[in-house]
TrEMBL record:
Organism: Salix brachista
One Pfam family it belongs to: Pollen_Ole_e_1
Signal peptide: 1-18
Superkingdom: Eukaryota
Alphabetically ordered keywords of this record: Signal
Name by which UniProt lists this protein: Pollen Ole e 1 allergen and extensin family protein
């Protein structure tokens, strides 16, 4: 019986040596740039109870990310167009750069969002045309960076005085 146990243990030991040992998978960082576009019904550059989010609006994003990490200095620059979803939000997922941990690197960013076209005939006069102000969130554990840009808006060509009180 002892020989049987010894045989099983040695077989397990030998099979564990022959199995391929894989290094832990490297988690890649994710960078997300996002913002919203809304219709400013009262033309006062604020989201009121009469305002609504604009689906289908086109937004241009111009971004530059510089990452400083002990072994590398990387820079990503790009310009892309995005269309807002049904909630008036545009979003861009940026693939990570090898060797740069988004949540840990010193990332210096500059992003500008500019409105290109409204999807609404009733609300198509540009209000806030571009936004460079952002809120940056870095989550080290999940290696995530989120850049939320300030709101952009369109206005109607005429303000409804009865609705807005002007």
């Amino acid at each position: 019986m002892n020989q049987l146990i010894l045989f099983i243990l040695s077989s397990l030991f030998i099979s564990s040596l022959s199995s391929k040992v894989e290094p832990p998978k490297k988690t890649r960082g994710r960078i997300t740039v996002m913002g919203i576009v809304y219709c400013d019904i009262c033309s006062n550059n604020s989201f009121s109870k009469h305002s609504y989010f604009l689906p289908g609006a086109e937004v241009r994003l111009d971004c530059k990310f510089k990452a400083s990490w002990p072994r590398t200095r990387e820079q990503i620059s790009f310009s892309v167009n995005r269309t807002t979803n049904r909630d008036g939000m545009y979003r861009l997922e940026i693939p990570s750069v090898d060797g740069v941990a988004c949540g840990q690197a010193a990332i210096h960013s500059s992003c500008e969002a500019s409105i290109m076209r409204s999807s609404s005939k009733e609300c198509n006069v540009p209000g806030y045309k571009s936004s460079t102000k952002e809120i940056a969130i870095q989550v080290k554990k999940q290696n995530i960076c989120i850049y939320r840009l300030n709101e952009l808006n369109f206005r109607p060509s005429k303000t409804d005085a009865g609705l807005c009180g002007n």
